């Protein structure tokens, strides 16, 4: 198991380098002058512009800028934004908002997705199964942004059940509506894959053998079927965590939550490549750690995977 985990860790290194360089190159290619954008359109003295560009290495070639940034990052120096804010302090302030929103949405999505998916897959072609298929198709067909704005308009503006925007009321009040919207959007895919996987395993030969031996349906489901059916489900949840955090970043802009998403949008607008890559790197590391945990869970549930 140790060698299996070590192989996965080694694979993560080149992936991290490639992804961070691509993100840095994309920000580098954005049009406009970040120093001029910092002034809000007001003219700056040429000496001030030159000093700022030299301080942030903006006149260096792309690869030199990237190496300078990665060198500081590996030393634990996250640097500063163009307006002098410490990036590490900003991350410390904003991470709790994004994590609370993302993890709340993931909890809602996982609980309801697994419950409805397991029930529908175990009792195929029943009322719940057909209702689930119809509901998931409807959710998947509607764009997420439309659902977010609609929920905000109806439940916050018209009914007044939740705050319209901001996080002043704290968790869970300020996060419940956006997290529920995110959870519902992710619920459809999770419920469908759980239902499909469980239905396939339920029709296997060993399940029919267990029934012929007189095992109770509950024992067959919880002791035999779920162990095999949850393998693709675990993979989906692990991969979907990145999608949930990405959705949380977009949702922060709609619901005016002061998290990583707002920081990312602001940094892209200011063409602050170092900040964008730092945020992307942090998200990438979290994503790869989750994938490592998923791989290890795979190895525990199915020992054959360790030799792949």
TrEMBL record:
Subcellular compartments: Cell membrane
ABC transmembrane type-1 domain mapped to chain residues: 95-294
Gene3D superfamilies, alphabetized: MetI-like
Membrane topology: Multi-pass membrane protein
InterPro entries named among the record's database cross-references: BPD_transp_1_N, MetI-like, MetI-like_sf
Keywords, sorted A to Z: Cell membrane, Membrane, Transmembrane, Transmembrane helix, Transport
Membrane spanning residue stretches: 9-30, 99-120, 132-155, 175-193, 229-255, 275-301
The organism's place on the tree of life at top rank: Bacteria
Record's signal peptide: none
UniProt similarity note: Belongs to the binding-protein-dependent transport system permease family.
Protein name: ABC transporter permease
Source organism of the structure: Streptomyces endophyticus
């Amino acid at each position: 198991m140790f060698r299996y985990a070590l192989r996965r860790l080694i694979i993560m290194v080149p992936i991290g380098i490639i992804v961070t360089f691509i993100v840095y190159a994309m920000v580098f290619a954005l049009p406009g002058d970040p120093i001029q954008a910092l002034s809000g359109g007001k003219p700056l003295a040429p000496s001030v512009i030159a000093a700022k560009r030299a301080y942030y290495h903006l006149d260096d070639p792309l690869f030199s800028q990237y190496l300078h940034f990665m060198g500081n990052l590996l030393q634990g120096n996250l640097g500063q934004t163009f307006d002098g804010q410490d990036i590490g302090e900003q991350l410390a302030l904003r991470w709790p908002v994004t994590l609370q929103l993302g993890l709340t949405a993931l909890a809602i999505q996982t609980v309801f997705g697994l419950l409805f998916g397991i029930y529908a897959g175990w009792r195929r072609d029943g009322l719940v199964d057909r209702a689930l298929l119809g509901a998931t198709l409807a959710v998947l067909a509607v764009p997420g942004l439309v659902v977010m704005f609609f929920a905000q308009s109806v439940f916050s503006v018209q009914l007044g059940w939740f705050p319209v925007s901001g996080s002043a009321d704290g968790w869970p009040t300020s996060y419940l509506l956006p997290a529920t919207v995110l959870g519902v959007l992710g619920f459809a895919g999770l419920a469908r894959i759980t239902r499909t996987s469980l239905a396939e395993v339920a029709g296997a030969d060993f399940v029919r053998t267990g029934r012929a031996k007189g095992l109770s349906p509950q024992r067959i489901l919880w002791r035999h079927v779920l162990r095999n059916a949850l393998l693709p489900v675990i993979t989906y949840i692990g991969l979907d965590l990145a999608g949930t955090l990405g959705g949380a970043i977009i949702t922060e802009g709609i619901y005016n939550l002061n998290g990583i998403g707002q920081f990312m949008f602001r940094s892209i607008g200011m063409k602050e490549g170092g900040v964008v890559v730092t945020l992307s790197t942090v998200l990438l590391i979290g994503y790869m750690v989750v994938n490592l945990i998923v791989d290890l869970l795979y190895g525990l549930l199915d020992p054959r995977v360790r030799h792949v």
